[in-house]
Amino acid sequence: MGVRYRELLLLAACACALAAPETTNKTIKKDVKDLDNYDDYDSADEVQEVLFNEDRPCPRDCICTVSQGYRIAKCNRLEVGVQKFGEDITDLVIDHADPTNPIKLDDFIFKKLGLHQIATVKIVNSTISYVGPNAFHGLHELYAVNLSNNKLKNLDPETFVTNKKLLLLTLSNNPSLKFPAAGSEKYFLNASSVQELDVSFCNMQYITANTFKNMPGLMYLNVAGNNLSDMDPNTFKKLLDLEELDLSDNNLKSLPDDIFSENTELATLHILKNPIDTVYGLQISDLLTLNAGQTNIKFVGPSMFNGMTYIANLNLSGNSIEKIHNQAFHKLVELNYLDLSFNDLDFMSSILIKENIELDIFKISNNPRLKHLPTDGFECSADQFNIYLFDASNCGLEEIFDNSLKTFTALSVINLSDNKIRTISEKVFSISPKLVEVNLAYNLLTTLNAKVFENNNELGKLNLQGNPLTVLSAEVFSHTPLMTWLDMSRAELTYLWKSGKNHTETLLSNLTFLNVSHNRITEIKQSELDKLNKLRTLDISNNPLACSRDFENLMNWLSTRKVSPNAVSENVANMAKDAKDDDETYSWEFLTRKTCGAALPHAMQLDVKLMDNDVDDLETEEYQEVSTEEQDHGKYEYLWPICIAILGALLLLVILGKIVMMMCSRRTQQIRYNSAIIAAMQAGRTKKDCGLVYQQLSEDLTGPKTPKLSRYQPLQTVTVNASNLSYESSPFHQQNIVPEHV
């Protein structure tokens, strides 16, 4: 029995352990977290007290992080005697320090702070009152320094002379920084290892021949945004490794012809936003990119680029160019990118780009006086161009001739928006079978030829927004099976499209986005959209839609397909405006309620949920869906612990009940056993509760001697007739009881 008790007690202990594992774990985790918090507090106290502990990598007023194995210290001040950095700090960042406490970079300050292995120093958007000539002395691993926008006034020329690994130096947006004056023999900095220098927006008014003479390793130099009006012709003579120079946003009216004659490595030159009127005569034999936008160039002559014939990227946008000689670009045989947009051109020769057979991108947009493209297209010496992007938007074009694009056979993207085009022949795009995107927005098109895209089987995106379209045949899209994006908004359509007899099953079967908002459509039938199996976004807002059973069926279909309405809080035409509606999310339910006056009687699932590869902008709905999932997950987070606790408690109750039942059963068996013994010993006797304590009154009876051989014979049964006995005649009567000891 003791073994059974021990087993039962063991089961009870297991049940208790199962009943509260989660609670215990959570308690332990909470305790550990609390201990961690206490450790953080203790650490903070120790940082405040022990300021010079070398084992502590992050001092006060700093936050230390590790990124790709490098430890970064982000601080809001720098003060010797108060801070001490660990030797493993590799990057120091100070941004927007307290302006009332200017930073003072005294000699050897970084070594005094323990930053012996520092690799980058970034102090920006603050105030540096002083930089000692030896401030960066001894930092042998330093390769990048950024001191931009710090109100710097002076830098000793020898500040970085010992930093032989320094490659990147940024000093931009320090308008009070002093540079050598015109005629001075002084130099700006002695830093032979620096490869990239940025001194933009520093109010530098002149560059002498010696300004950068002790920085011969420069490969990138940015002097943009200064007030440069002139520079010495020998300024860049010693920068033999210079690859990119940014002179933009200055006051330069001209450049000396031979200013770059020694810079044979110069590949990129930015001179935009300067009052330069020509680049004629510049000798930069290996120049690849010339950014000459927003200058005063008004005429591009035939010899303007003779000194830079290897140009691949040419930007002449934003100028006031009125005329371009028809052979201006003929020597630029390597030209890949040509931007002539935002000028004042009124004519474009058909042989303008004849020799530019490597041209990939051609932009002539925003020349509103242009009116026409060449009637027979742009001539090409190799018969066909490799141009894949052509932008002629906002050029005042009134017509696109049949052969205007005949040499653009490789065209993938064409933009003809914001023009005055009224019709487009079926031959215009037929010579460009690789077209993927066509933009015809905001023209004067009232309809489209049914065969306008007959040869454009790869067309995927078509923009017809802002055209006065009144009718559109479905046959227009019968040749574009890959189309995924179609915008016909802000037109005059009264229905989606006119379906013909040849309406194929695959018509717009890949369409995912359709916008027909701001039209005059009164009815859209479900049958018109049945074949759009991949439709994910449909915008039909701002249409005078009428409530009907077809409309209700359409709403059901859109909801079942989980198509997005692609509009939020947008007023729809013919609908009453209510201030409360502005805060309500635009949905099919909202549209139904506004159109029909009440929600549909049958249940509709109106939640919008797109597939994982949705390209439409539904971030708000996706966020709400994810949030709902997280909330549901939170609701079930405590379900398992509660179930385990309940089951454990039930198991414990069952075990306790079992123990009680066994004890009661054992006690009952004992009582029955005792009663059986008494009954066997005193057969026929009864007790009567008379309030006396009895002792057993019996005597040992000796029977007659029995022979040995018959000792195993059964005893004779003695039968007592209880009916002849009475309590008064029994020996247990009160009068017959005699005490044993008198």
UniProtKB/TrEMBL annotation:
Taxonomic lineage from the root: Eukaryota, Metazoa, Ecdysozoa, Arthropoda, Hexapoda
Protein name from the UniProt record: Leucine-rich transmembrane protein
Pfam families in alphabetical order: LRR_4 (PF12799), LRR_8 (PF13855)
Alphabetized UniProt keyword annotations: Leucine-rich repeat, Membrane, Repeat, Signal, Transmembrane, Transmembrane helix
Organism encoding this protein: Operophtera brumata (Winter moth)
Signal peptide residues on this chain, from the entry's feature table: 1-19
Residue intervals passing through the bilayer: 638-661
Domain of life assignment: Eukaryota
Keyword Transmembrane: yes
InterPro entries: Leu-rich_rpt, Leu-rich_rpt_4, Leu-rich_rpt_typical-subtyp, LRR_dom_sf, SLRP
